[in-house]
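Quick one, C-alpha cells below. Sequence please?
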C-alpha cells in the first residue's frame, strides 16, 4: 500500500500539471489604455486593440493555437504549500498528441513522456526501488488491466488535450467575462493583456473535462450550487497566441479537496508558452530501461 501511495502522489501531481494547463502569478508590464475590439492595428507592432468580449477573445486565440499546434512551456505551481516547477514541450494534434515534461519537486525530479497513447514516467530512484525494479522508467499502457494503470492511462489520454491552451480558452468562452484589458510589454514584445473572471457554476462540466468518469461525477456533485469565481489573466501576442496564462484556482481546489488529481495541485499556477509552431518530437524510452507498471501492480496483488 505504501508503494502504491507513493506512486499515486507522484503521478497525481504530474497529472495535475497536465490537467490544469493554466495558471496564476503575474508578469509586470507597462500598461497603456485599452481600445475597443475591431479598431485598427497599433502602429508598427501589428497588435490589434484588445477584445472586449470573452467569446471573441477565445475564438481568436483558439484559431491561433490550433494553427500552431505545438509549443514549449514552463509551469510554476503551488502544491501542498510547496513550490513545484515543470518544463517541457507539447504537440496538440488529436490522436497524435505528444508531450515531454520534467517536474521538479523537493522530493526529486519526475520526468514524463506521453507518446503513442502511452505514458512513461521516470520517478526518483528511491521511489523506483520501492517497486522492486532498477529500471528508471515506468510504463503505463492504455490496455493495462489493473485499476491504477487504467485510471492514470485514461486520465492522461484525455489530459493531453487539456494541456492544449485552447482548453482554458474554452473555459473563458463558456464561463468567463473580461473585467479588464490593456496593452503591455512582455519579454520585450507588445501584447494584449486581459483580466478575466470565470464563473464555475455556468459550466461545471467544463472544469470536470479530462477527468475519469467517476471523478467527473464526484466533481459535479461537490461543485453543484457553489458560487466559485476564478480570477485569470491572459497575455496574447499579435498572432493571437497565448504567451502567458495565469489562474488562481484556490477556491475551486478548496471545494474539491481530494476529488481529483488536479485537486492536489493547490490552485495557483503560471504557464508560459514559447516557440509556437516549432516541431516537437517525443520518443519512447529504450525498452531495456522500462518496467511495465501493470506487471508491478499484479505482483503487489492489485
Amino acid at each position: 500500500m505504501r508503494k502504491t501511495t507513493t506512486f499515486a502522489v507522484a503521478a497525481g501531481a504530474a497529472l495535475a500539471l497536465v490537467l490544469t494547463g493554466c495558471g496564476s502569478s503575474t508578469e509586470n508590464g507597462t500598461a497603456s489604455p485599452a481600445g475597443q475590439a475591431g479598431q485598427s492595428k497599433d502602429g508598427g507592432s501589428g497588435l490589434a486593440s484588445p477584445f472586449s468580449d470573452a467569446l471573441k477573445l477565445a475564438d481568436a486565440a483558439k484559431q491561433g493555437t490550433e494553427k500552431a499546434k505545438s509549443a514549449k512551456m514552463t509551469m510554476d505551481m503551488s502544491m501542498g504549500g510547496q513550490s513545484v516547477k515543470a518544463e517541457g514541450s507539447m504537440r496538440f494534434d488529436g490522436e497524435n498528441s505528444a508531450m515531454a515534461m520534467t517536474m521538479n519537486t523537493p522530493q526529486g525530479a519526475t520526468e514524463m513522456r506521453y507518446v503513442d497513447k502511452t505514458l512513461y514516467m521516470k520517478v526518483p530512484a528511491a521511489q523506483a526501488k520501492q517497486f522492486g525494479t532498477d529500471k528508471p522508467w515506468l510504463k503505463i499502457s492504455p490496455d493495462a488491466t489493473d485499476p491504477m494503470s487504467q485510471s492514470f492511462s485514461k486520465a492522461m489520454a484525455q489530459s493531453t488535450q487539456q494541456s492544449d491552451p485552447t482548453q482554458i480558452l474554452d473555459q473563458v468562452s463558456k464561463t468567463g467575462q473580461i473585467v479588464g484589458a490593456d496593452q503591455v510589454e512582455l519579454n520585450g514584445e507588445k501584447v494584449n493583456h486581459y483580466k478575466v473572471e470565470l464563473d464555475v457554476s455556468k459550466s461545471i462540466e467544463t472544469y470536470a473535462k479530462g477527468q475519469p468518469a467517476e471523478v467527473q461525477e464526484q466533481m459535479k456533485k461537490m461543485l453543484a450550487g457553489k458560487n466559485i469565481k476564478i480570477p485569470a489573466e491572459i497575455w496574447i501576442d499579435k498572432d493571437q497566441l497565448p504567451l502567458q496564462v495565469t489562474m488562481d484556482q484556490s477556491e475551486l481546489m478548496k471545494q474539491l479537496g481530494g476529488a481529483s488529481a488536479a485537486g492536489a495541485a493547490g490552485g495557483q499556477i503560471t504557464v508560459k508558452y514559447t516557440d509556437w509552431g516549432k516541431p516537437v518530437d517525443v520518443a519512447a524510452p529504450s525498452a531495456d530501461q522500462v518496467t511495465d507498471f501493470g506487471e508491478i501492480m499484479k505482483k503487489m496483488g492489485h
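Confidence is low (pLDDT under 50) at residues 1-40, 258-265. The longest strand covers residues 176-186.
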